[in-house]
């Protein structure tokens, strides 16, 4: 598809996910991804669609279709259009990842997505985060990427001291 062609029918759920290619997307992050990007990854991404009148509509999607090698779970592509204001020059994305939860916020929370995924290979030290751009007619630049690692929330057994009576 060239940049001059309209892409009005884009829908996250029926698009085929992050592996598809369009003039203006998809582009975003691969989280809980195995280090070689061969088997497991959960994509969190934007897709910009061009309307017949030349207007742009931004979609925010989360693709679970390659989130796990397990075959007995439901894997979906979810998302929706996300409002981008005229004075906003950049797209913003905040993604929180736990061992099996991916919670994402686009444009300051105007659109959100939460997935429960079941990775079997992309776990612990074998899980990575990658940037990707599958757009065919757009160059995308990440101007800021901040990664925070949280401490474990493992709860230890606690025995209250017994009072002497």
TrEMBL record:
Domain spans labelled Glycosyl hydrolase family 32 C-terminal: 21-144
Top-rank taxon, per record: Eukaryota
Pfam families assigned: Glyco_hydro_32C
Coiled coil (UniProt feature): none
Name of the protein described by the UniProt record: Glycosyl hydrolase family 32 C-terminal domain-containing protein
Natural source organism: Zea mays (Maize)
């Amino acid at each position: 598809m060239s940049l001059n062609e309209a892409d009005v029918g884009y829908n996250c759920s029926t698009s085929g996910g992050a592996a598809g290619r369009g003039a203006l997307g998809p582009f975003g992050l691969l989280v809980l991804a195995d280090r070689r990007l061969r088997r497991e990854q959960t994509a969190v991404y934007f897709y910009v669609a061009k309307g017949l009148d030349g207007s742009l509509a931004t979609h925010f999607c989360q693709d679970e279709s390659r989130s796990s090698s397990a075959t007995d779970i439901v894997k979906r592509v979810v998302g929706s259009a996300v409002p981008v204001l005229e004075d906003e020059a950049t797209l913003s994305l905040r993604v929180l990842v736990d061992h099996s939860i991916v919670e994402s916020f686009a444009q300051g929370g105007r659109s959100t997505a939460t997935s429960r995924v079941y990775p079997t290979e992309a776990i612990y030290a074998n899980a990575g985060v990658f940037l990707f751009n599958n757009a065919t007619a757009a160059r995308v630049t990440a101007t800021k990427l901040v990664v925070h690692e949280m401490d474990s929330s493992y709860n230890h057994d606690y025995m209250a001291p017994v009072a002497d009576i």
